[in-house]
Amino acid sequence: MMQEGLDDGPDFLSEEDRGPRAVNVDLQTDATLQVDISDALSERDKVKFTVHTKSTLPNFKQNEFSVVRQHEEFIWLHDSFVESEEYAGYIIPPAPPRPDFDASREKLQKLGEGEGSMTKEEFTKMKQELEAEYLAIFKKTVAMHEVFLCRVAAHPVLRKDLNFHVFLEYNQDLSVRGKNKKEKLEDFFKNVVKSADGVLVAGVKDVDDFFEHEKTFLLEYHNRVKDSSAKSDRMIRSHKSAADDINRIASTLYTLGTQDSTDLCKFFLKVSELFEKTRKIEARVAADEDLKLADLLKYYLRESQAAKDLLYRRGRALVDYENANKALDKARAKNKDVLQAETTQQVCCQKFEKISESAKQELIDFKTRRVAAFRKNLVELAELELKHAKGNLQLLQSCLGVLKGDT
Amino acid sequence: MSEERDPAALEAEDDLFVSAMESPEAARLSAEDISPSSNGPKAEPVLLDDDPDDPDDLFAEIDEDEEESRDTFDIQISVSDPEKVGDGMNAYMVYKVLTKTSLSIFSRDEVCVKRRFSDFLGLHSKLASKYMHMGYIVPPAPEKSIVGMTKVKVGKEDLSSVEFVEKRRSALERYLLRTVKHPALLKDPDVLQFLESSELPRAVSTQALSGAGILRMVNKAADAVNKMTIKMNESDAWFEEKQQQFDNLDVQLRKLHASVESLVCHRRELSVNTASFAKSAAMLGNSEDHTALSRALSQLAEVEEKIDQLHQDQACADFYLISELLGDYVRLITAVKGVFDQRMKTWAKCQDAQVMLQRKREAEAKLQHANKPDKLQQAKDEIREWEGKVQQGERDFEQISKNIRREVGRFEKDRVKDFRVVIIKYLESLVHTQQQLIKYWEAFLPEAKAIA
Asked: Which GO cellular component terms, listed alphabetically, does the Swiss-Prot or TrEMBL entry include (chain A) (predicted)?
């Protein structure tokens, strides 16, 4: 199977900036803690990420170091944040999705099987395209894992987390096996309970206007982003299919050009050449739309879910607080276990207030990040679309000039 | 097969036609042009003859003359206004065929008639039976479509049946234009009748399941079998080369056609998905609570909506310009291959005649020593008969070979012109699309930058 080192890919780092490739997030990075993924290796069924840290913090033994991590270890870190009561009042940066090369691998395999049925040129061409596709998926998964780490590193509280430091520094395998069947089942039930709960909690009207508004907003926004994300994916897939068709057309025109006995042979060859070039541009348009639009929407789908989770936790804490109040009133009325009820009520109150305070800031930051990310990506999207359209136009016009001149 | 002709038989034709061609009003049919010919069809095609020993010369002269006749080629045909007549399964579409011309073979400058699809098929059938065996490339008629037509008959006014009718209308127009572009077919009385006369006898034999239709199918099968069994001694490299070229062209054009059809399909899909995304983006913009971002998202939705329309228009251009042209040429090349097959058949006939002649000669030789005077006389008569047939066969083969060379030359010229024109038009449509894209994104960019 393909072994892909990042350094081998010609395109990879040239187009995106070096350093934190925080594509979808606009982060203030400071010198005290900088994290990035400097290298990655794709093996048969796993991807190995080299996590590189530069830090002036006293917590680390050195100022600069690297470790190798796999996807499961990222998930372990994410889950440890989610499960910690300490961080209940924060938006937990969404976990990166699992690297998925299955589709790409399948295509490469099919290509290998069908090698006999096509010409050498066609085979080489298709192989190059599939390899480019593989590389693109690879780049994306690296970017998404990196963004997760950068978000954690940029968060004033999460960056201090011990597990995070272990993740960054411990240069041996963390031995976090993936969850076994039982644990996965437990997770499933937890989620079911949570969503039922979520409905319950969401129904409770909030006294605080800010949170009430946020609740309504996030519920609707999340659904809309989900829809837009799916539709943008479909649109981009059609675009890729059309580019593939143009590729085949270019090949056939080339054959026609070499076989034709009339003046058309030059004509066909020129047009074939043109379509080869415009096809590459169309493929790039689809790829850029994928990066700047589809990925953006996917990311905010996950982030808005994380924000909803925060609201849920606050709502849960509120319900607990209100229940503790009722319990206290009851205890006072019966004059039984009043002290215990008071303590419980105090704890609940503190928990709720702590969450509320940090949640408010988190949600405000979420909005700021979201607006900045959309701005950056929409501007870049428009600029790239323009660049490609102008490139296409120039190719078409120059070819037309030649063809018309020949007549 | 010898390249020599019987000079006596053709000299008369030679003079007649060369002089006719030299006059600038070559397209006009005057009385002198029509001369009875023993082996030609009922209507006289305009044959161009020249020095057969130098094939290159042949084309040079023809090109010039044809160029001239093309400059005076003044005829416009449009097929329009499809109208449904009747209803249920007996319904049919009627098209208006409008001919505008200054050519004198037409009785009026402007003629308008109503024709239905089977009329077109009938015309093609007549032209094919008259001219194909002589090596003329008769443009094929558009294909029948039971599925497409049934929808129309049943009265579905949906998008696909509207598209089907438009596709057919356009195809019928192209068919007529190609037919009249052929200098011989233009003058054919069936063509003139088709374009001019208000009433046309119904072409029933074009129906697939009619007696004639079944006969056609049987003949086609027989032809296919014969083709496999005829092994022609090709002494003319030109024909062998051309056949190979047309076979290659056939393969590639079919491949190209399939890819273009796929492109049309995907572009239409892209258009639909873009529209869907646009709506979704508008909804997202509505729910976004940051004002500037909300506005930018709505703008994005508008841009995508315009782009979806652009994709749709481009898909149309893909289809009507390129895909239909390729489809036409795939069918035309089948007609060209048919004409080559006719030549093979003619050769086979000639060979058969020679074999017969040989047999008759052998029979006569035997009878020489049999002392049966009347049988001998009969044998001698038969020999003369078959000698005549052999000569005729050789002449036919000469003629068809010559016709094919000329036809292929004309066909290739047309092909070059058609493809050039269409591809340039297509590229211009692509240019327009890119220019529009630039316009839309340039308008959007400041909106995106304005998000604060």
From this structure: cytosol; endosome
Question: Residue B78: in which H helix or E strand, if any?
Answer: strand B75-85
pLDDT-derived band of residue B159, with 50, 70 and 90 as boundaries? confident
Helix (H) or strand (E) holding A136: helix A120-154
Are B277 and A238 in contact (CB < 8 Å)?
no
Angle between the N-to-C axes of helices B237-287 and B373-449, in degrees from 0 to 180, rounded to the nearest 10: 30
Q: Which of A125, A262, A266, A374 is the best substitution to test chain B (most B C-beta atoms within 10 A)?
A: A374
Q: Which residues contact A29 (CB under 8 A, 6 or more apart)?
A: A19, A20, A150, A153, A154
CATH number of the domain to which A233 belongs: 1.20.1270.60
* CB-based contact, B355 to chain A, within 8 Å: no
Per residue, the 3-state secondary structure of A36-104, as one string, reads EEEEEEECCCCEEEEEEEEECCCCCCCCEEEEEECHHHHHHHHHHHHHCHHHCCCCCCCCCCCCCCHHH
Compute CA distances B193 → B51, B123, B141, B201, whole Å: 35, 10, 17, 11
pLDDT tens digit sequence for A294-346: 999 999 999 999 999 999 899 889 889 989 999 999 999 988 888 888 999 99
Spatial distance between the Cα atoms of A272 and B32, rounded to a whole number of angstroms:
50
With the CA atoms of A226, A229, A231 and A234 taken in that order, what torsion angle do they form, in degrees rounded to the nearest 10? -130
**Residue A128 lies inside a defined structural domain of this protein:** no
The percent of chain B in helix, strand and coil, each rounded to the nearest 5, is: 75, 5, 20
Sort out which chain B residues have CB atoms less than 8 A from A220's CB and list them.
287
Number of domains in chain A: 1
Distant-in-sequence, close-in-space partners of B323: CB < 8 Å, separation ≥ 6: B257, B260, B261, B264
SS3 for B111? strand
**Closest in A217, A227, A379 to B289, CB measured:** A217
pTM for this predicted structure = 0.79
- β-strands B75-85, B92-101 pairing: antiparallel
Domain annotation covers residue A120:
no
Distance from the Cα of B178 to chain A's closest Cα (Å) equals 20
Q: Output DSSP code: residue A293.
A: I
With contact defined as beta carbons under 8 Å apart, do A381 and A289 qualify?
yes
Asked whether the beta carbons of residue B288 and residue A221 sit closer than 8 angstroms, the reply is yes
CA end-to-end span of chain A: 51
Q: CB neighbours (10 Å) of residue B226?
A: 13
Instruction: List chain B residues with CB under 8 Å of A246.
Output: 263
Burial zone of A339 (CB within 10 Å; 0-12 exposed, 13-18 middle, 19+ buried) = exposed
Nearest chain A alpha carbon to B429: A396
Residue whose tokens read 């499809």:
B82
Contact A42, A17 (CB under 8 A): no
Q: Is residue A171 part of a domain?
A: no
B420 to chain A: which residues are within 8 Å by CB? 264, 267, 403, 407
Q: Write down the ipTM of this complex.
A: 0.85
In chain B, residues 289-328 whose CB comes closer than 8 Å to chain A: 289-290, 292-293, 296-297, 300
Instruction: Record the tokens describing residue A99, joined without a space.
Output: 């690297």
In eight-state DSSP terms, residue B210 is S
**Residues 6 or more apart whose Cβ sits within 8 Å of residue B81:** B95, B96
- Is B367's Cβ below 8 Å from some Cβ in A? no
Domain containing A323 equals 198-406
The secondary structure of B254-284 as a DSSP string is HHHHHHHHHHHHHHHHHHHHHHHHHHHHHHH
Q: pLDDT tens, A157-191?
A: 999 999 999 999 988 777 766 666 667 777 777 77
Give B113-149 as a DSSP string: EEEEHHHHHHHHHHHHHHHGGGT--PPPPPPP-HHHH
Amino acid (1-letter code) at residue A140: K
Instruction: Residue B350: count other Cβ atoms within 10 Å of its Cβ.
Output: 21
CB pair distance less than 8 Å for B270 and A235: yes
Kind and range of the H or E run holding B401: helix B373-449
